[in-house]
């Protein structure tokens, strides 16, 4: 039931949406053990001349970048799982976008079960019922 909010310095295309979503669905299921059928992904595409790193536009640096955060229920994944997830996600975006700026970020956000949910129920409620 994680949700991923993704920002990518690229031009939007159905093919790119599919590549990014398949990468994230694979990693989120395989490494974090989250169910594909309840994983949601929202992708925003941002022009490289609207993305600044270190005071310089990505277009000036001839680089690409991405940022995404994923919200998961606290205490459901280990530090090692999250570290592997971040490593493989960075490598996956490097393959997809190419020429990736090192200042591309991934935020695995642990959210308290009583404060997070979907379908009108918290994760804590789902755990107990």
UniProtKB/TrEMBL annotation:
It comes from the Bacteria. InterPro entries: Tautomerase/MIF_sf. This is 4-oxalocrotonate tautomerase family protein.
């Amino acid at each position: 039931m994680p949700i991923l909010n993704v920002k990518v310095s690229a031009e939007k295309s159905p093919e790119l949406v599919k590549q990014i979503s398949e990468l994230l669905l694979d990693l989120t299921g395989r490494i974090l053990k989250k169910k594909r059928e309840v994983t949601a992904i929202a992708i925003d595409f941002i022009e490289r001349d609207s993305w600044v790193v270190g005071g310089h536009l990505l277009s000036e640096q001839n680089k690409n970048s991405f940022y995404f955060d994923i919200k998961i229920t606290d205490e459901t994944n280990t530090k090692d799982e999250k570290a592997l997830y971040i490593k493989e996600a960075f490598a996956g975006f490097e393959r997809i976008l190419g020429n990736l700026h090192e200042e591309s970020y991934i935020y695995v956000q642990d959210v308290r079960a009583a404060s997070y949910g979907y379908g009108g129920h918290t994760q804590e409620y789902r755990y107990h019922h």
